[in-house]
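User: I'm writing a tutorial on reading structure tokens. Could you give me a worked example: one chain, its sequence, then its tokens, then a sentence or two explaining what the tokens reveal?
Assistant: Sure. Here is the example chain.
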Amino acid sequence: MFDAYAEFLASERAAAPRIQRLSEVFRSLTQEHTLTVARDDGVYRHLVMAEPGTKSRSWEVVTWPWALCVRGDMVQDLVFNHLHDMLDFFIARDDLLEDFERWVEKAPQVWSRPFYDRCQFLRDVGERLQNKVDAGMLDETRANHLFNQAAFAGNRAEDAAEWLSRHTMLGQIPLARERLSDGLVMTCLAIRETIRVYQEME
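And here are its predicted structure tokens:
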């Protein structure tokens, strides 16, 4: 593997994944939050998470048959539809991103938006350059030079597109991919935390 690409992959692995970083931010903002159960009647629930004495950064989770609604300061207002008791649907597994993507599929009014991801762009460029090196079509010195150029140009989608237009040997590399927005991730974290605290109270 050529040096610049290997160094990039090593530094990327060392950085905390995005979901983990957002989880840490969420925890720091909500560590004083407590749950108030306004209604608890079978699948009819009204759960409020807030820091005592303030409505700032609060949210509510309301359930009824086949639906869960979340709304508030820290979340995107959404309605999810799937199971008779929606708390059963929001049971977390090991992979948070996989959980969140599965959950958001049940909110018909929203899905992930196209998003430029610099790290994904550089992974794609590095992979294409490495394939050229492996095929004997490019030497490692030239691959390092091109990768460093891409890293410099890749800070903005417009600059990355312009750089790619001058390096057509790499073929088409998509710059906008669908992913969960930070707001959707925070919403999923809020639902998950509300259910965790509620189930601990039972």
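What the tokens reveal: The first helix runs from residue 3 to 14. The mean pLDDT is 87.
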